Amino acid sequence: MIEIERNLFVGGEFDEQQERGQPGWFFIHACKEPYHRQALGYAGRAASKDHPEYLIARREGRLILNLVDAADVNYIPAGIVDAALVAIHENIGDHRILLHCNQGQSRSPTIGLLYLLKFTDRLSGLDRDAAIDAFRSIYPPYNPARGMAEYARINWDRYCQAA
């Protein structure tokens, strides 16, 4: 778990297990397994697409995303990423936030990168490649899967705006 911005930590499932139950935390579970599955209680391959929390489940102190580390960018819904960014922005002043996926290498750090890009000046003035290099100096385990890397590339300009 690495603090990439004051009160914003990025990590993996192990980090969430270590901090679970500790006061002052807001968790963003950027992974379908096991968090989204447990929150909705489905047993099959996926939750019903008709379920009102099919993409995003909100619970006290947690945002739970139905986000898989897909190789195809078409399986990365912008609404999920945007909800995570809004939740970080709304909670960062009152809580320590742990943004995590299973291994802490792809989904959660990509969302963390986009948060820094949109809501801070840490990466301002840098082109995309330089910003990603700068982010890797902040968060060395960053190793996005093809879908998350492509999502960031395609949507870069959309997030590259001041809050």
TrEMBL record:
<dbReference type="InterPro" id="IPR000387">
    <property type="entry name" value="Tyr_Pase_dom"/>
</dbReference>
<feature type="domain" description="Tyrosine specific protein phosphatases">
    <location>
        <begin position="93"/>
        <end position="140"/>
    </location>
</feature>
<protein>
    <recommendedName>
        <fullName>Tyrosine specific protein phosphatases domain-containing protein</fullName>
    </recommendedName>
</protein>
<dbReference type="InterPro" id="IPR016130">
    <property type="entry name" value="Tyr_Pase_AS"/>
</dbReference>
<dbReference type="InterPro" id="IPR029021">
    <property type="entry name" value="Prot-tyrosine_phosphatase-like"/>
</dbReference>
